[in-house]
Every structure is written in C-alpha cells, then in structure tokens.
C-alpha cells in the first residue's frame, strides 16, 4: 500500500510501554475492566480485584485497566458515559492499585482532557477513520490502540494507523474486535486469520478484543484462548463487578469469578 | 427499534427545502458536483455548466451543488481538501448561479464554520456513528444528509439519524452509497432493496449516491436509473470538468457530456 | 479469468429462443409462475391468468412459465416438491396456453427426465457450483438459466457458466437473485451494480429474480423497476393464485392482482 | 430451529469411530493428506510419512488420511481429479499404513462407489445444500463430515446436517472451512466464534479445516493453534510431498517438514 510509509520503514516490530505494562513484547498483555466507568466505587473495586487475581495470585503483571468515559452508543437514548468525571475515578483507581489506565476518546476536543488523566487511549471501531480525531491523537503523544471498524479492510485499518505514525506518534497498537459477517449466534465474527496476517504485513502489536465479537460471556474464554494461541500480543476483555447491573454491554462482561477462571486456565495452558 | 422515538412519532414523510430545492417531495432531487472543490474556477465552471444543462436546457431545477472541503481520505498522504477556502469558493459558485450548496463535515469543530457558508451538510459514511459530530450538527440547525456506513445495518443508520432528530433537527435525509459485499467489478455493492425498505420503515427522504458504489463512470448512469426507478427521492452524483485530472475519485466522476447524456435519458424515461 | 474461454471467444452478446420467447433480445423477458407446482389446477390457473394479463390485455408475449418440481429446501421437513408429476402438470399448462415452461433441476439423475417435459431449465443458487449437474445439463442441450449463489463472486458464477459453454451448450443465461449481505429488512441484498457489470464483462443475458431478494411481496414491484431500469434482460417473479396458501415462499409470491398492477406500471414506464 | 429434530433429540454430544480414529472424543482428530490423490506413489508416500510423524515419532494415532478423487473446481479447465482410480490408490495407501481414509463426493451417483473404498466421506462447501447428495449419503451409511458453505448461516449448515440425521445416519460431523468476508490477505475468513457456538447449539463434533481459510501455508500453523485452543474436536490440513508441484491448492498445502513442526508444537502446547 502506498500509505504505509512509516509502517514499512523497517526497524522491526514496534513495542512500547504503558506505565509498567509492555505492549508488543514477549509477554502477552491483558487489558481488562468495565465497558464504562459507572461510579468511583465500581472502578476501584474492579482495579483492586484485577490486581489481586492477576498480580497477587497468578504473578502476572502485564496489565492495563480499561474504562469508558465517553461511550459511542448506537442509540441517542442509551447511557453516554460520565465524561471527565469518569476519568478522575479511573485515574484514582489506577493510582491506588498501580495499574496503568486507558480510555476511549471519540471527540477531537476531548483528546487533551483525556491525555491529562490516562496512560493510553483507544480509538473505537466506529471512529477508525475519524481522521480529525487521529490527527489530534498523534499530536497528544499518548500511546494509542486503534480498533478495526467492523466493516473495514485490513488495508484501511493500517492506513488509519499510518495517520498516527505519519504525524510522529510511535506508540501505536492495533485491536481486532470482530467484523460483521454471517453469524446468528455471536455479536460479530472473529476472523482469527487477521492475527498472523497483521503480524506478517505490519510492525504493530496486535491485541484481540474478545468481548465484542462474543456478545455473550460464555464464548469469551474460548475466544481468549484462540486469540493468544493464534499469536496475538494480548487480549482486551470487559470485566464488571456485577455484569447484570451494567449500564452497557451487560451480556458480554465477565464477573470476577469467570475472569479468574479464564486467566488461570490461560496461564495453565501456557498462553498467558 | 427502541431508538426511533422521533422517527416514528408519526406525522407522515419528512420533506424540507434547501434553498430552492425540495428534498423528499414529488420531484426527485439531483445533488451534483465535484468530489472536492479544487479551486475557484473549477467549482464555478461546474456550477454554471450544471445550471445550463439542468435548468436551462432540460427545465429541471431541483438541484443542489455539492463540493468537498474536508476530505475523509483512507491515506494520510492523499489530498485532504482545501478546508474553509473551499467553502468560500463553493459559496461564491452557488451565489453566482443561484444553486444551493452543500459540503461534508467530519470534525465537530468545523460545523460552525461550515454552517456559515453552505445551505446543507452531509455526513460521510465513515462518520455515520461519529456521535459528537451528529450532536454538533443537530445544534447547528442546517439540513443534514446522513450517509450510511458501508458496514452498517439499516437500524444503526436510522439510530444515527435519530441522534439528529432527538436534538430537535427536523431537516434530515438519508443517503445510501453502497455497502461492502461481494463484487470484484464495482467499488461497493448497491443493495437496491434498501430504497423501498427505508421508505417503509422510516419517514425520511432517501437519496442514492450513484458514484461511490460504481467506482468507475461507465456504471453510473445505470445505477442512477435503478435508484430512481426503485423510488429514491433523488441521486447524488460526482461531476467534474476534467475527471482524469481530479485530485480524488478520478475514475468515478462524470464529465459534463456524460452527465448531460445521463440526465437527458432520465428525463426521457420519466424518471427525473 | 483463465476460465472464460468460450465466454470471451467473441461473437457478440448471446441471445436464444425458449419456445416463442426470446432471451437476451431487445424486448425484456418475464419469467413468472409459482415457486412450486402444487397441483394440476393451480399451475393451469396460473398459466391461463398470466397469459390473459400479459398477452391478451397488455399485448406482451415474451413470457416463460416457471414452476418448481424438485425444491431445494433448507429443512428436510419442508415440502420437497412433487417431482415428475409436477413436470407433467407444468407441461400440460404450457401446452394449453402456448407458454414455454421451465423448471429447476438439482440432481444430475433428473436432467434427462426434466428435458423431456420442459423448454428450459434453471439451476438454483445452491447448485451453482454443482459441477456434475452442470456437466449433465450441458449434454442435455436444453437452454439453461444459471442463478448466482448468494455467497459467490461474479467470477465464480461466470466460471460455472463456462462449465456449460465448454461442453458445447450455447443457450445459457444468468439470473441474479440476491446475495447475503447486511439487510435486516429484506431476505437478501440485491446488488444492482451486477446488472451493468455482467453486461460489460460477459456475453450472456442477465435476468433478475426479484422475488428472492425481496422476501416479502411489497418490495417486489420496486425491485422489478430497478432491475429493468438497470438494463436487465428480464425479470423472474414468483406468482401464485393464493400466495398465503402456498407450500413454500408464501410471503414473497405475488397474487394475480399485484402482478397485473406491477406489469402494467412497468409497461407504462416503458420498462417492459 | 424447526429443522433440528434429531439434532436436538437429546442424548449428549455425538461421537463415533472412523476405523481406529475417534471423532468427537476427548482426543482431537487430525485429518491430513493431499488436496487430491494425484498418483499411487504420492498418496502412499504421504500416508507412510504421516504415520511416521504422528504415530511413530509423536505417539499420536487419532488420524484420518484425506485425499480428493473428484474435485469441485471453479474452472472447467482445472484438474478435476482421477475419480475411482484415485479411490483405489487411496484405499491401498490406507491398507498399507493402517490409516482410515476419507474422500469427497459431489455426485449422488458416486456415493455407492466411494462407499466401497473409503471409511468416511466429506461433503465440500459448495455442496452443503446439495440435498440429493445428502439423501444418498444418508442411505449409504458411511460417516459423513459436512463442510459449511462459505456463504451459509450456521442454521442452514445444521439443517443440512439434519438431512443426514433425519434419514437415520448417526455418524455426522461438521467442518468449518472459512467464510467469505473482508480479508485481502487470506483466502477466507475463519470466524473462530463458530467453534464454541456450534458446541453450544448442536451435539455434533466440529472440525476446523485450517488450510482453506489460510490460502497460503505460512498462516496454517497459527490457525491450527487457534482452532484447537477454541475447543475444536480436530483439524483438517492439506499435506503434500511436494506442494509446489501439486495439481491444486499448491499455495496452501504443507510439506512434510512444515507439517511435522506444526504438530510437534501443537503437542508441546498440549493442544494435540
């Protein structure tokens, strides 16, 4: 592709740090946390429990805490996120537990605010080709995780990554989160060929969001296994203290017990 | 859908004016002009020629002049549009010919500027679910044409329209521009069932962009016929004085001669 | 494509006769009749009424009567068709009204039997790449209408046509019947760009099945308009004396009144 | 689904034997061999080498030898397989090595012949809804592996399996081989969510063909890992003594060295 100038400049696979976490290194990354930061208590409870499960009990510390502040909802009548307040609560949860934190930004006007609070930013699928947002993020200098749109080609996705790289940002990673295809029993299709493909054609780390393609929690652990076995540099997974009460994505968020079982099994299989 | 509150409030099909043009009325609408406003001369030449062909020669005046100022390009190294300068040139071309004008906005920070210059705004496919942009547009009060993302469902599209309606905007129309499907010989697939479907399930006018699904100009007149025959409220078509020299979409823009032949035939068939 | 040897041998667009009907000529073709030949009376009633509407009242005689004898059903518990008996009834209806008749064959062992009764044979979408069937049909020498599979590329479709041409059959036409794509409100997506595309890249007549993409009858007349306006050589449409009692495709078959209204309007628009 | 009568009759997950191999049991299955049986030597060489690698060196014996006799080729001018002769060669290779053997059948008239030679039969993607073939296979009584069409829903696939079950066949397994979706760098998309989904909604064993979605051999080992990690009951993989000389699927077949490396790693990871 003509647009992969920095992406193909050579220099080997890209790897970078987000707080203590390493993205694109030998050890896989786990990005976990609620779909949305709903209040100060739930995000602190989530952060503390994730730390207990992963760091204290399993000795695994390559973790980033995720939490949505501005939510890209299909309907204008759905919960839209708590905005800057959510970022304060997320930051505090990160500080108290030592976990690096990340959030999604949709509006170029929010990039500066977000950058004050979080250690990394992700771009949601719907904004993969929101070029004003990408340009603003490149300037902000925070590490960016770029989700693939569910209707986009791999080339389009990598060209969007190039918007970030072209403006000088070096800490860029990709997140595959499922595409729209034929599947009546899952929310999206997780084309697992994308993982080795992206590793062949680009230098960027590739993370798999295993919650959104699943759409319901029983599938999540199987997708996590497949993603890591396929060579992904990590997984992103939605975890909530009480998923059934979640203000968004209630059906696909894991509770702490399911999450712990999943990561324990991944550790035992040598995948984490 | 739970999110179609205003859309389904009743009140019959929505119809509105953009300058002298009527959107959603008995007479179909023609939105024509270059992909991008490349300089003052080419947009004025286009406006004047379109007026000659449609108004003077064919007696057809339900026309809007389109021209891109900010371009959503896949690659950061492609021409990104001339921004506000392009709007000045577009406005002047509109004023000199009496044609209402419209442009695409991608960045919520540009909505105010655009609203000063143009009579209507379209949202491109890639920004269909850019909710901060939709909210800003609802406030600006200009008529909005919302393109469907090439990977989105009809429900998601109508829910995005509802973002505009929910905040009080009444002048909203839809543009179908093709979806990503199986077709090695066209740029996108134009699912023509969408036209009668959208008329059955919503109250919004539905326009078909016949240039983007085609991807090359020989297909455009056939898609225009199909769109109008299927009951669309109008077509959007890219026209450029010298398509081969265009800075974007060179292969799919019509020259004036092809455009004139096409609209004459549409008139003769009673479709326009 | 390497496989288009006969298809691209030159010689101009292919056109042929099925009884009195001309396929691929100046005048569009109407293939109409029930999904399935359910009994002798209903097919005779359909044939006689179609003749009355089209030939007697509208003066339009480029018609073929369709009727299924072996049905390719998704479920083994659905009605599978009356087989050879249905062919007898169909033949009789054709003979009494003077309409040429066609049916679908799925099993290579049925090709000989079918060829004794009907004037043309269609291959359903699901059997587009059933190569033993295609080879048997090429030998039988009856005109063949080849439907595109809802998951196939245009190249694959034309290569399947080449199976027929390669073995010496000259009377081959294509039927587009919709592909599986994003559309929650129709049964399939009718990518109308396929019509001009196929006319550009092949020499075969292209018919559009307007019933299967619709899935429900209110959409059918709009798709018929779009198909003919896009330049199709004809339409295939399911018509049943009492659609609500039909043993298959109940929702998408037109009754005689809807069919008559549709073809009258197509005539008035100059599309038929 | 109304059509899942036998499939949902209860009785727990289905498991059966093919020669010494167990399908749907605790131990995963490896189906390996060339795309096509090209001559007696190459299939015997393949069988003997597979046995050496898997049984002798790795102590893994849950294996079936695959080899095509009738090939479903897109183009009529491509190699169509050696037919019954290939079955003789395949049988002999099986007998000499003790490996059970399987082949693909496309024509209902070939079912009887195939059943005399092989231990199991697979139905290719293109014939998933070839109902005369399915009915003939149900009568033949040999175990059947049913591939999913690349454009079919999961419901359609399971309804096709029901055609086999409804007629009394009990030894039925599913093979996912990739669907047509957005992926410019692989031949098909391997939607890995299908594996846990099919295990939730059906009682049938699910095998993943890791060669066809890949389209090129470098991706194959990664897909094999993902498939088994996602819980598949086995993998199907194309192996050829000299892939670059293969008469079909040259780019995606593994040579013996790549195959051995792959299965060794799968054993070391505990996935096989």
Name the features.
272 residues, alpha/beta, eight-stranded parallel beta barrel, homotetramer, two-stranded antiparallel sheet, 10 strands
Description:
The structure is a homotetramer of 272-residue chains. By secondary structure, the first copy, chain A, is α/β, with parallel strands linked by helices. Chain A is built from eight helices and ten strands. An eight-stranded parallel β-barrel of chain A has the order 3-4-5-6-7-8-9-10, surrounded by six helices. In chain A, helix 1 (40-57) packs parallel to helix 2. Chain A is globular. The A-D interface holds A 151-155, 178-179, 181-186, 188-197, 200-201, 213-214, 218-219, 222-223, 225-231, 269-271 and D 151-155, 178-179, 181-186, 188-197, 200-201, 213-214, 218-219, 222-223, 225-231, 269-271.
